[in-house]
What we know:
Elements: H1 2-10, H2 20-34, H3 38-51, H4 61-66, H5 75-83, E1 88-90, H6 99-102, E2 108-110, H7 112-122, H8 124-137, H9 145-154, H10 158-164
Parallel strand pairs: 1-2
Helix pairs in contact: 1-8, 2-3, 7-8, 7-10, 9-10
Amino acid sequence: xxxxxxxxxxxxxxxxxxxxxxxxxxxxxxxxxxxxxxxxxxxxxxxxxxxxxxxxxxxxxxxxxxxxxxxxxxxxxxxxxxxxxxxxxxxxxxxxxxxxxxxxxxxxxxxxxxxxxxxxxxxxxxxxxxxxxxxxxxxxxxxxxxxxxxxxxxxxxxxxxxxxxxxxxxx
Length: 171
């Protein structure tokens, strides 16, 4: 899922933003879920930093202290979004980011599929290019165009896959 989002960003659909704390969080979660070697996770983090050199943002400490979330350990995500002037936090964990707190800050949450399918209206060419790049990066196993769209659905990008279907020859 992270890889698809990064390839969409590489295609030019959006500019990602994260912080060191966000890196630590996804790496800890990934390690816990898949028990992968830390060296592989560090490699992925370094590749992300090389690909998007301006994406790592140090959250403003004033923004950090001004945010009161149900789970205070998530305040760094909101502070990073505020500092990076993001309009959206891409997450499945909406209950940790209530609308009543985010809306006055000019923020909202979207699932990864909502985010990508919403971007499709504004950046169709860039989403298609990002999906093409993503499919080309998949070697084990490689996916033909039709199987790739099924793969996106398995990754929980059902809406995005359906939007890409008419353009599958470009993938």
